[in-house]
Specification:
Layout lengths: L4 E7 L6 E7 H73 L22 H5 L17 E4 L8 E4 L5 E3 L4 E9 L3 E7 L4 E11 L6 E2 L4 E5 L9 E8 L2 E3 L8
Antiparallel strand pairs: 1-2, 3-4, 4-11, 5-10, 6-7, 6-9, 7-8, 8-10, 8-11, 11-12
Length: 250
């Protein structure tokens, strides 16, 4: 039986020489298998190299991201320390103003009703004799914020539940609740004067009541937009807010 062979002939357009090579079919098949194996090896090497480059790039990105996170964590730690210092300063300020301490609960059952009425001296006066706001609404207080162009009132810091007194004889012309001043009361007085009280814990009068100067109309609270118990106190003349210190000696 004749051997099966494969001949390879190569020639050139510029030379008469002819290259001829004859290989057995087995050798040709072996060469093809070897070439295929080498191609697979090259492809595998390229895949491994690409995977290594991707992992290296990923590792570089993770290291960079880790550095960013460490820097952000350091900023957060510094911010937390700053907030702790601010909270301590706020606590000290609250203690200095006397608004941090919580008063003991009031026993309204045992308390006599006379304590919510005007004093004996005030009761002897004719209603309307103290028609212009001149009485400080609180007995124990600290001025936490004064009158200015951006804050046309005086804030009086006091303990929660401190009685709030009417600054003059008048009528309860407004009583309501809003998101800024919480529970509030508006008193109408003579000669176009009005007095406004905000951040009440609770009311002691209702709309339309007639009140005397010094009569308790509510208690200090922290309702509305308030960070601590205090009284927001305004005096108005012909609907315009004026500095309470021009009429009231704090």
């Amino acid at each position: 039986m004749a051997r099966k062979q494969v001949s390879f002939i190569a020639t050139s357009n510029y030379s008469p020489k002819i290259f001829k090579r004859t290989l057995s079919l087995f050798a040709v098949r072996a060469l093809l298998v070897l070439a295929g194996f080498l191609i697979l090896v090259v492809i595998g090497a390229l895949i491994l190299a690409g995977s290594g480059m991707y992992r290296l790039a990923r590792l570089s990105y993770l290291e960079h991201r880790n550095s960013q996170l460490e820097a952000e964590f350091a900023k957060m730690s510094a911010l937390r320390q700053r907030l702790d210092r601010l909270e301590k300063q706020e606590k000290k300020m609250a203690e200095m103003l006397g608004v941090e301490l919580t008063p003991p609960p009031v026993d309204w059952i045992q308390m006599t009703a006379d304590s919510l009425q005007p004093t004996a001296e005030t009761s002897r006066q004719v209603w309307g004799s103290r028609s212009i706001p001149s009485l400080v609404p609180l007995e124990d207080y600290v001025i936490s914020r004064g009158f200015s162009s951006s804050h046309k009132a005086i804030d009086l810091a006091a303990q929660q539940g401190t009685p709030v007194r009417a600054a003059a004889d008048g009528i309860v012309t407004g009583r309501g609740t809003d998101t800024v001043f919480g529970k509030s009361i508006l008193l109408g007085h003579f000669q176009g004067y009005e007095s406004y009280y905000g951040h009440f814990e609770e009311w002691k009068v209702v709309l339309g009541d007639t009140v005397r100067a010094g009569q308790i109309i509510g208690t200090v609270g922290s309702t509305g937009r308030s960070s601590a118990p205090h009284l927001h106190f305004e005096i108005r003349k012909d609907r315009k807010r004026i500095d309470p210190a021009t009429l009231v000696k704090f």
